[in-house]
Design a protein that fits this description.
Order of helices and strands: EHEHEE
Radius of gyration: 11 Å
Strand content: 25-35%
Oligomer: single chain
CATH class: Alpha Beta
Strand order of the largest sheet: 1-2-4-3
Mean pLDDT: 95
Number of domains: 1
Shape: globular
Distance between the termini: 23 Å
Helix content: 25-40%
CATH architecture: 2-Layer Sandwich
Largest sheet: 4 strands, mixed
Low-confidence stretches: none
Structural class: alpha+beta
Amino acid sequence: MAETQEDKLLDLAGLKCPLPALKTRKALKVLAPGQRLCVICTDPLAAIDIPNLLRETGDVLETTEENAGHRRFMIRKAG
């Protein structure tokens, strides 16, 4: 599954809004175009905040998965 392999993992479990979106934005700034960021969150609002952030930045949400209260976002840096 090379196409879903992340270049960076950001575990934000336990953090509440707005921290997951803010930390995701910061992590994306240092990635090169085409690199992937995997973000793990427990805050239910991240399901809204992170896709909204990506609409602003132009980066691509490749997959979203939810399992046992944890939401996993696979994001590809645009460019």
